[in-house]
Amino acid sequence: MSEAALPRRDATVPAKAAKPRRARPIGSESRLVQILLIAVSLGFLLLFLLLPLISVFVEAGARGWSAYRAAITEPDAVAAIRLTLLVASIAVPFNVVVGVAAAWAIAKFEFRGKNLLISLIDLPFSVSPVISGLVYVLLFGAQGYLGPFLKANGIEIIFALPGLVLATVFVTFPFVARELIPHMQSLGSTDEEAALTLGASPWRVFFSITLPNVKWSLFYGVLLCNARAMGEFGAVAVVSGRIRGLTNTMPLHVEILYNEYMSAAAFAVASLLAGLTLVTLALKSLLEWRYGDAIAAARHH
């Protein structure tokens, strides 16, 4: 047979492709890896979260119940507690109303400037609370842009309750909206459109369909917003002036007591603040246990 009759082997023919490796299913890691991951997570939580929290309560009760009661019932502490609850009771409902409106607009409508609105909602996450407090001082302070006008009309914002509320609203605003936006987007608008077709008014659609569908996301947003409102320090410290008994919230009062070497009183007030947080967490856990199936269904709807 002649050489020309033999089939030529093309040097450019690629080698036989290797079989792709099968993806490893999630959760198939070895028992050792699972134990190590769980141990690292629990160790971190124990060392950086649980032990400091326990130490706060231990130090608070180190001098007995009488000293603890005296620390949390003295006039400045009572004023700080009342002011903290008042600021939170104003800021949280405001953020709920505005957050629901913003989330509804972003999830249900298409309009020019939508991306800008989303960026503005996220703005408090990227701005230092101290800077946000300073901005309000520059706007509404005695030497600020609007300060002379406000002073001439007898309006006081900085070093007063309105300034504390404004600063708290700024730093806590994203929590409600950010919990609601992805949930509303996942739900779509089918239910609302069907209700409108059947003749329901927009307000009835909102209160009968939209709000019940997102109630658990709204609840989580309120919890996060309330916890941050009661524990905010940086922005409130700038706009409050730290006037003892007048504009000090609980975090500011704890700092003043600690700086004055009144550690027992500082830990007592700090334990009260931590206790409010634990009550909120307990309420969240109770509702999750009681309505766990409904919450899971709403999240996967």
From TrEMBL:
Domain ABC transmembrane type-1, residue spans: 81-282
Cell compartments where the protein resides: Cell membrane
Record GO terms (molecular function): ABC-type sulfate transporter activity
Membrane topology, record value: Multi-pass membrane protein
Subunit structure comment from the entry: The complex is composed of two ATP-binding proteins (CysA), two transmembrane proteins (CysT and CysW) and a solute-binding protein (CysP).
Superkingdom to which the source organism belongs: Bacteria
Segments crossing the lipid bilayer: 32-58, 78-104, 116-137, 157-177, 218-241, 261-283
Compositional bias per record (Basic and acidic residues), positions renumbered to this chain: 1-11
GO cellular component terms listed in the entry, alphabetical order: plasma membrane
Region ranges (Disordered): 1-22
Function: Part of the ABC transporter complex CysAWTP (TC 3.A.1.6.1) involved in sulfate/thiosulfate import. Probably responsible for the translocation of the substrate across the membrane.
Protein name, entry field: Sulfate/thiosulfate transporter permease subunit
Keyword Membrane assigned: yes
Primary location recorded for the protein, binned into one broad class: membrane
Keyword terms, alphabetized: Membrane, Sulfate transport, Transmembrane, Transmembrane helix, Transport
Species this protein is from: Bosea vaviloviae
